[in-house]
């Protein structure tokens, strides 16, 4: 089953993005976010929480040098998760234990960016960062500034919480992206030496630790490292991490001499062996990173049982735990999935990173078997929850992407302590902005795939692409008008498989096609231009009445975009608005204007039922991802009908 | 202004409750709850969290005796709020620091109960408990087992958190109730000695601590102690506590050597001087206990500014922060009031004790000026949120009284960790069951009041009552049918003022009357029988559209009762039900049967809008307070219309 329809994404160096919608955003990442991140981890952003990233690497390099000279190891405490005390010893580690990953995500984004935009200045900065990293590597290959600075002998003693394997995963992904873009091996070589240490340290063999990552990502990173180096042991190590996870006794308890109780370790997806996991649970970012690694391993080893778990986990998300915006992780408690159909709008978490991880998972599932469900969801996430994570000017970011915001509640209701009604400049725990930078600067990898017979167009992003068996160009007006033209120059007879977006009720394709699993398959034997028109229209979307929040309500979509209403356009108390489902929905630039009503504000807290007094109003919708770009105000995706 | 219309509740010993609805509940408290509490604080309830109350008093008595003999004080730690470690030193304190109050609330309920039901066995038990308390009193008058057992010299060093003054308040109220019922003074005398110590310790004079209670109640207790003893210094001490509260620097910071910042101490209502407090905020029980004390002081000192604050605080609650069930305190975070109109149904807190405190506040406000708003709200609280706190058999209790429960969410959503979908046997922090016992066993105090000219009927509870200027009997069928007959035998010409319930749109009164401030005033000069019929009917109630939760929804009421729907009657997924507002509402015993629809369950998580498929159903409502008496299931007060 697994082997039947496999495909592989097309590498970034063979893709040049030329999209009227996405190019602006990619440029923003290149010209705003990447430089901003550089300033951030150098602690040069006024008013932002400190990263300490560069200073930590410099300290670690000093320790590494001292150790090479045979000097004694430092012995600062390694008992906390965050070290923000300005008064603590200057030579000790500062910031979060996983702060190194800021560097690595930046390098990955730089690598992706350099693939398409050679930039000597940027490369020079990257080279400096890479030097810092390489200098911080210990003789045994180990790279982690927290333990190196504070106590190298304590390395690998708190696998559950302290993110060493997570940082290694990001290092690996960064090193690979940079190597792919520049051909320069220094960081990749250092990474391989660290990977070798990890292979020697963790495994089922006598003398090794039977651990697996407390925060997943290592698994998919090792698979990538195998793909770039051909070293099978890296793939096997990834498989080991997947296979070992969730076994009993749980390593996370073994390492702290505790007993494991039934139901423990849901947060880290270590509550069950992975093949028995059929419901998406726990910390949402961890979860989708794990599921991505599971899909990789299922594919490479033809592991049907693992693949079946992946399919069930996908269904669990898509059918019961997915916000209409492509957000996942419904609760801030543990930044986690909640139970089925528990999708609160004003208490959502829907972390930007989690949606990004969902796109990772989608790509891998689609590469195993091309069913349009996967990229339908990826599209939902990309155009809505993920884009919402960044301001229009690329200078501020959302960590959580709620579907309903009342700024008064954010300030006065402590249950919403985690909700900011406007994007923030940077986060001390800065996972989301760099993650945004890396997915947007590698967007092409999520759009196109190929195998021997077929080229897959998963996302209609305008681009010029060199595939193995064809060159093709997409001229896309998809975001705005649902149209695309694909000009394919094949080297041999191939299929072009184009995804039919789930939102399209009516479409036209200029060539003969057959539909399978949501893709239209078009036979191409000579240079062909395929015109696609998916005819987007404003549509009211209902949410399952299993979701208690949304009964009696609807949302508005057009094409890939989910819309929302904002106070600045529609006044305070958005809950007093009702949309007339039989009214007109007029597109006006980026907005949609709908017919509706506004109820008169009630004066009494309770009163005997009577029909509400209401007056007709025009209700203005904007795409969800554009909200909160005009100051602090109320917003809602769902509205009464 | 304040002096104009004052009245005073009629004392319990002059009231005999004979109500078809309430007598059963009063009996339940007398025969089930009071004996159950006794077992609870003796730690004889299997499966319940331990109280340690009796054992603490025994230990304290030993220390008191040893100190009298000149032995050294114990020096166990006094740094925690709870001491539940079974392995800790046997002689040290166990349980919560405020555990003594369990005893005192029980004695108060016993006192109330004995007023009407002499019971030699119960009195004997009470006498034993009183002996235990008196034996634990130190020579200087101090009574508090936590500090006495662990370290007497640390007394009064953590006024903010450790509830000494709160326990004193409950001791006082218990001692007074017991004295009123039995005429026995031992506990009252001990209490006065402790009160004297408190007057010597706290005040504005040189050498005294400028503190005020961390958890209010002391204020109203001292007023009661003044009323029973005539000692003005107790009233003045209460006034001192009221006046000092919220001044800067805040004593709670002074005692821990901290700086006070703007906005600190909202939780304890110490964020502003009380006369500047105009919005109900912070811990809801603390708040209404404070406001009750403020009303007492406003009345006794004719303090118009304080009274104006009380009126604004009342409005803040009644108009913007009150659940339809009479619950207050919308958030579990700090068991506190949330901001205006933030009244979530499935995340409510609505603690039983807070509603009880609201009734205390209502009574005091009505005694200053008889406006029906006060007892309308008291009625709402008594018949709904408060009664919901106790199971039909008097054997289990709700602490929180939510308006929407999905048992699955209680188990799987950690944001609802505090929500139990069924009543619990007892609580380690057992404030609510004893508070229920004391308000129900003193119900009469909240029903009737008098002044020179007027007898007030605030609540239509069947009773035989001896007032100063009249005897009267109420034959009440109010709960069930909204009717009452009041037979008044006056000793002189008086007014009978009867409250017109806010739910009554149409009523008849068999005598001539004038209406003022929601009361019908009837002149009575000879024995008269007044028949009242308030003609309850099932009514749909809308909630202000400022409350985001409830737009598009309604609740159902009949007479004083708010109704709800339960899964056991109406199936799972109550959100799929809609009530037809134009349909019939048929009373069927305790239930009301309404016409409505059930939507077909959706299969897709998201789909293009179409009219919901629905089938007509009968929807069964029961009074809110009766819910969760038939096992664990979904419940909702609000429903779609």
Question: How is this fold's topology laid out?
Answer:
2 copies of one chain form a homodimer.
Chain A: E1 8-9, E2 15-17, H1 22-41, H2 53-68, E3 82-83, E4 95-96, H3 100-116, H4 120-135, H5 145-150, H6 164-182, H7 186-201, H8 218-229, H9 232-244, H10 251-254, H11 284-301, H12 304-320, H13 352-368, H14 372-388, E5 404-405, H15 407-412, H16 432-441, E6 448-450, E7 454-457, E8 463-466, E9 470-477, H17 478-481, E10 483-490, E11 494-499, E12 508-509, E13 514-516, E14 519-524, E15 528-533, E16 539-543, E17 553-558, E18 561-566, H18 567-570, E19 577-579, E20 585-588, E21 591-599, E22 606-608, E23 614-623, E24 635-636, E25 639-640
Parallel strand pairs in A: 7-11
Antiparallel strand pairs in A: 1-6, 2-8, 3-4, 5-24, 6-7, 8-9, 9-10, 10-15, 11-14, 12-15, 13-14, 16-17, 17-18, 17-25, 18-23, 18-24, 19-21, 20-21, 21-23
Helix pairs in contact in A: 1-3, 1-16, 2-4, 3-4, 3-6, 3-16, 6-7, 6-8, 8-9, 8-11, 9-11, 11-12, 11-13, 13-14
Structure in words:
Two copies of one chain form a homodimer. Chain A has 641 residues and is α+β, with helices and mostly antiparallel strands. The first copy, chain A, is 36% helix and 17% strand. The first copy, chain A, contains 18 helices and 25 strands. In chain A, the strands form four sheets. In chain A, strands 5, 16, 17, 18, 19, 20, 21, 23, 24 and 25 form a ten-stranded antiparallel beta sheet that branches. In chain A, a hairpin with a 3-residue loop joins strand 8 and strand 9. In chain A, helix 1 packs antiparallel against helix 3, helix 9 crosses helix 11 and helix 11 packs parallel to helix 13. Chain A is globular. Chains A and B meet through helix 12, helix 15, strand 16 and strand 22 of A and helix 12, helix 15, strand 16 and strand 22 of B. Strand 22 of chain A pairs antiparallel with strand 16 of chain B, so a sheet runs across the interface.
């Amino acid at each position: 089953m697994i082997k039947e329809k496999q495909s592989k994404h097309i590498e970034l160096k063979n893709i040049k993005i030329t999209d009227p919608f996405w190019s602006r955003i990619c440029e923003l990442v290149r010209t705003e976010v990447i430089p901003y991140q550089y300033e951030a981890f150098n602690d040069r952003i006024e008013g932002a929480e400190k990263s300490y990233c560069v200073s930590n690497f410099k300290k670690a390099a000093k320790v590494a040098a001292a150790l090479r000279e045979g000097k004694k190891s430092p012995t600062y405490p390694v008992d906390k998760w965050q070290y923000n005390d300005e008064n603590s010893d200057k030579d000790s580690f500062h910031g979060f234990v996983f702060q190194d990953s800021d560097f690595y995500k930046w390098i990955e984004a730089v690598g992706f960016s350099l693939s398409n935009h050679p930039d000597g200045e940027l490369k020079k900065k990257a080279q400096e960062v890479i030097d810092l990293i390489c200098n911080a590597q210990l003789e045994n290959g180990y790279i982690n500034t927290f333990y190196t600075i504070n106590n190298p002998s304590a390395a690998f003693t708190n696998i559950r919480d302290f993110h060493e394997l997570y940082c290694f995963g990001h290092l690996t992904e960064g090193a690979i992206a940079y190597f792919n873009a520049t051909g320069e091996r220094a960081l990749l070589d250092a990474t391989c030496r660290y990977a070798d240490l990890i292979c020697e340290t963790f495994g089922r063999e006598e003398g090794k630790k039977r651990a697996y990552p407390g925060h997943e990502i290592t698994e998919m990173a090792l698979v990538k490292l195998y793909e770039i180096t051909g070293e099978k042991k890296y793939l096997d190590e990834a498989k080991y991490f997947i296979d070992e996870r969730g076994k009993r006794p749980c390593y996370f308890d073994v390492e702290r001499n505790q007993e494991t109780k039934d139901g423990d370790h849901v947060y880290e997806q270590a509550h069950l062996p992975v093949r028995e996991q059929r419901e998406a649970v726990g910390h949402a970012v961890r979860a989708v990173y794990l599921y991505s690694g599971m899909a990789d391993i299922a594919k490479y080893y033809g592991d049907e049982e693992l693949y079946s778990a992946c399919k069930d986990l996908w269904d669990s998300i898509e059918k019961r735990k997915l916000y209409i915006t492509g957000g996942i992780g419904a609760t801030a408690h543990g930044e986690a999935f909640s139970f089925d159909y528990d999708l609160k709008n004003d208490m959502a978490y829907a972390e930007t990173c989690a949606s990004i991880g969902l796109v990772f998972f989608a790509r891998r599932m689609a590469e195993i078997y091309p069913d349009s469900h996967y990229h339908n969801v990826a599209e939902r996430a990309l155009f809505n929850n993920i884009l919402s994570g960044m301001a229009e000017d690329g200078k501020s970011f959302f960590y959580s992407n709620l579907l309903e915001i009342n700024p008064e509640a954010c300030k006065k209701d402590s249950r919403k302590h985690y909700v900011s009604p406007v994007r923030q400049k940077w986060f001390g725990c800065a996972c989301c902005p760099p993650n945004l930078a890396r997915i947007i600067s590698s967007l092409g990898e999520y759009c196109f795939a190929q195998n021997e017979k077929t080229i897959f167009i998963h996302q209609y992003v305008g681009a010029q692409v060199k595939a193995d068996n064809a060159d093709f160009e997409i001229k896309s007006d998809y975001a705005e008008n649902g149209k695309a033209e694909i000009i394919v120059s094949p080297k041999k007879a191939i299929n072009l498989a184009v995804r039919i977006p789930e939102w399209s009720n009516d479409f036209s394709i200029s060539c003969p096609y057959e539909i399978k699993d949501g893709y239209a398959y078009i036979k191409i034997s000579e240079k062909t231009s395929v015109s696609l028109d998916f005819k987007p229209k404003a549509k009211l979307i209902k949410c399952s009445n299993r979701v208690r929040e949304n009964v009696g309500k609807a949302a508005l979509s057009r094409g890939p975009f989910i819309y929302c209403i904002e106070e600045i356009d529609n006044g305070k108390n958005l809950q007093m608005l009702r949309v007339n489902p039989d009214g007109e929905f007029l597109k006006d630039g980026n907005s949609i204007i709908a017919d509706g009503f506004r109820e008169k504000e009630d004066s009494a807290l309770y009163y005997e039922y009577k029909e509400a007094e209401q007056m007709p109003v025009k209700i203005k919708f904007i795409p969800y991802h554009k909200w909160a770009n005009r100051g602090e105000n109320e917003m809602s995706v769902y509205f009464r009908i």
